[in-house]
Amino acid sequence: MRDGKRSVVGQGLRAEVERGAIGSFAGRVGAFFAANQGGPRIVMGALPFDRSEPDYLFQPETFRTGDGRESEGQPISLPDAVRCAITPAPAPSAYRDAVAACLEMIAVSAGEAGPLTKVVLSRSLELSSTHDFDATGLLRALARDPSVTVFSTLLPAGADAARPLLVGATPELLVSKKGGEVVSHPLAGSARRYADPAADRDSAATLETSEKDRREHQAVVDAVFDALSPYCSELEAPEGTTLRSTASMWHLGTRIVGKLKDTETPVAELAGALHPTPAVCGLPRERAAGVIGQLEGYDRGFYAGAVGWADEKGDGEWYVSIRSARLAGRRATLYAGAGIVAGSDPVGETDETSAKFVALLSALGIDEHGRPLRERAA
Fold this sequence. Notes:
InterPro entries: ADC_synthase, Chorismate_C, IsoChor_synthase
Radius of gyration: 20 Å
CATH topology: Anthranilate synthase
Number of strands: 21
Helix content: 25-40%
Order of helices and strands: EEHEEEEHEHEEEEEHHEEEEHEHEEEEHH
Mean pLDDT: 91
Pfam families: Chorismate_bind
Organism: Aquamicrobium defluvii
Protein name: isochorismate synthase
Catalytic activity: chorismate = isochorismate
């Protein structure tokens, strides 16, 4: 994992942590360190979106941290244009229909106790290439944007011929913990960025003043406060809600910082309390997750889960695994989602997912139809 300031790199696979659901995350990490005295005192890996599914955590052979500029002086450029077929899953028209159905569910629930107020619906692009995808080249291309945290982590071996990886560039911190300090930086409410400066400023201004997006964002912030408050003696958002930009998107973001009542509370327990936030699931969480399973039509796996690390002391960092791709040899799956609330527009939400695909597609050198960007520009 690397952002513009710091890198965290584990290499090799020394041992795997017993797999299980997120409810046992902290206990299994603690048990692993108690039973395994050798190697780096750190575990890394990924949590799936579905809280009931098993995670994948491992101890690397080696571990090091850096200043985030380790690749300076190395050639960082777009990988050679990938020639591949792309199959949307679901198709954009089916995704629009799912958003419309979701909006109807939200409207019908308005008069109920504990109404459904938000659901994050995603869609994917299935890529089939003429050659293996280059995870290292993809990471280097994604790392050109200093506003995101790039990551690559092993996933559990399955039926794929090649060992799958989860690779991405996330702008969203689920939770970090160092000693007695805890930080979360949720994002919700998004708008596309534009090459034209005037159009880009208008897009940011529209997002910043959007009642619908402000309402969506506040619901996420409230949920993070509710989850962390039992653990903290102090909890605040010192800068309030601000605009956060990546190379392709504007977001509303709120940085939340707190002081733990018990400094020995492990980051794994905090991540378990937070995941999945309404930024990737919805509200109420269990009901929104049920709607996602009903309407999306595919298994998210480790997309919209979390990636990160935890050490023996209980410190660590976990990032929401959005703007991510599952790579396995010549096959890849890219993911993007949008938060559906009252007032959402099916066409607009579909366009938002297309905008969120841009970072990964551009890093691969292709557009949403699989056409090489260099050829299109020519």
